[in-house]
Amino acid sequence: MNVHCLPAGPIPTNAYLLSEPESGQAVLVDAPLGVWAKVEPILKKEGTRLVALWLTHGHWDHTQGAAEIVRKAGVEVSAHRADQPLYETPEVMRSRIGPSIALEAVRIDHWLGDGDTLQALGRTVNVGHVPGHCPGSLMFYFPGEKVVFGGDALFKGSVGRTDLPGGDRSQLETSIRTRLYTLPNETLVLSGHGEPTTIGEEKESNPYVRG
Known about the structure:
Largest sheet: 6 strands, mixed
Distance between the termini: 29 Å
Number of strands: 14
CATH architecture: 4-Layer Sandwich
Shape: globular
Radius of gyration: 16 Å
Number of helices: 7
C-alpha cells in the first residue's frame, strides 16, 4: 500500500491518499481545500481510482475540499454521526474562522462508529471513536501495516486542542489512552497536522498524555 501525505488548505492540513496499484483502488483520508489537484495526478500516474473518502472529523480545515472530491470522483463519504451538523451545515463554524474561508456542505453516505471495520485496498481497517478534540473524531487503523490515521487527536509531542465547541480535555485523554495508546508501540501515527510519530514515542515523551 502506498501512502501519500498531501498537505493542503489555508491551514496546512494533511490529507492521506492510500493507494494499491495492484487492485487499482485508492482511498482518501480527509479533504482539505484544493487537495483534489494533488490527488488527481497521482491517481493517473499509478493507474488507480478513488473509491472512498474517509473523514476523521468535521472541522472545516479537514472538510473544505470534500464536496469537490465527491463531484470529481463520485465517491461515497464516511464519517461519525456526532459531527453531522459540521458536515451538513458548516456555517455553524463561521464565527470561529471569519468571513474569508469558503465553506461547503458535504453529504455523508456512511456513518461509522467505534469498533466498526472497513474493507479497503484488500485490507481490513479498524475504526475507533476518539472524541475530545471534536465529538465525531475517528481513527483508522491498519493492523497489517501498523499505521493509524488519527486526525487531530494525537500529534508528535502534542494533542488536539479542546477549546473549540464540543472539545473536552478529559474525554480526549481517555480517547488517547484507551484507543491509541493500546495500539502496538511501533504503530506509525499519521496525524492531521505535522510530522509522523509512533505510539511508543508518544507514550514515553508526550507532555500532555503519558502512557
